Amino acid sequence: MREISLDRLRTLVAIADQGSFIKAAHSLHLAAPTVSLHIAELEERIGAPLLSRKRGHIRPSAIGEVLVARARRLLDEAEQALSDIQRQVQGLEGRVRLGASTGVIAHLLPQALAVLRDQHPGIDVQISVQTSEETLARLADGSLDVGVTALPQPAVAGLVIQPWRRDPVMAFVPADWKSPARITPQWLASQPLILNDASTRLSRQTSEWFAADGHHPVPRIALNYNDAIKSLVAAGYGATLLPHEATAPPPDARITMRPLRPALWRQLGMAHRAGYVEPSTQHVLDVLWSLRLV
Q1: What is the pLDDT of residues 216-252, one digit of tens each?
Q2: Which of 143, 144, 222, 248 has the least CB density, counted as fewest CB within 10 Å?
Q3: C-beta separation of 269 from 159 below 8 A
Q4: What DSSP string runs through 90-131?
Q5: In the chain, pLDDT over 70 holds for what percent of residues?
């Protein structure tokens, strides 16, 4: 069964509005025979006359009036769809799906979202909490558009992964503890600890930091929410190791933040699919890139 094209419906609506084949042809910038052909094809497809002629005036038949009303809605919807898509092509609107860890979402992403809200208010950024491995897998299968991942990462076919930030990992200890100016693995291993759970890259990094000095401490508790960890530190439950962004607010007054010896760094990368990047996605990448620190 042949489908009805929007061009044919547009011709029918124009005739209904103009009351004339000639006037409709002029308004549509078509030749009169083309207009006649469009109506003949529509009537053949419908199986009934769509227009009636009375006293030199052409108007829709009863069936034609029903089709004209439906055609107007379809044409309006088509125009609206094209307008919406065009705004996305221009980067004025769009949806961007972004995956990141809770640590990134807590402090870094809010800065980017504030800039995007001011510069590109029509872009809807949908955020999901993901591990780095989950983020890369979802980028590869197309269910995410942008990812923030821990580095290093193995190369993934079809993805672009770029270094983005390099932030120091610091020791966060209860302020009433007597702590050295620089925290060593030996000193920290002897304290009660609150660390990231084993599923995170940071957990592996801190384990390697301790192990390089011959220590393998067992934490009192392992979590994957940095703000919850800091709350426990503030309560005196233990000390922790967490990355600290230069733009992050200072810690709770009940927490002392100390540098490490040897130093430890949290490296992050930005990832997206290779090839064509939609304008809305590019805007998000550009704003994130403005927070680059490597």
Answers
A1: 999 999 998 888 999 999 999 999 999 998 888 888 9
A2: 143
A3: no
A4: TTSSEEEEEEE-HHHHHHHHHHHHHHHHHH-TTEEEEEEE--
A5: 99
The Cα 51–Cα 66 span in angstroms is 12
Mean pLDDT for the stretch of residues 70-75 = 94
The SS3 of residue 171 is strand
Q: Distances in Å between the alpha carbon of 27 and those of 8, 59, 72?
A: 14, 17, 16
Pairing of strands 159-174, 255-258: antiparallel
Q: Which of 155, 127, 151, 150 is nearest to 140 (CA)?
A: 155
d(CA 177, CA 182): 14
User: Quick one: how far is CA 173 from the chain centroid?
Assistant: 35
Per-residue pLDDT, averaged over 24-44, amounts to 92
Joined tokens for residue 134: 């989950």
pLDDT of 1: 40
User: Hey, is 160 helix, strand or coil?
Assistant: strand
Residue pair 97/145 in contact (Cβ under 8 Å)? The answer is yes
Q: What structural domains and CATH numbers belong to the chain? A: 6-89 (1.10.10.10), 94-165+268-289 (3.40.190.10), 166-266 (3.40.190.290)
Q: Is 9 helix (H, G, I), strand (E, B) or coil?
A: helix
Q: Distance between CA 16 and CA 39 in Å, rounded?
A: 12
pLDDT digits (tens, 9 = 90+) for 137-160: 999 999 999 999 999 999 999 999
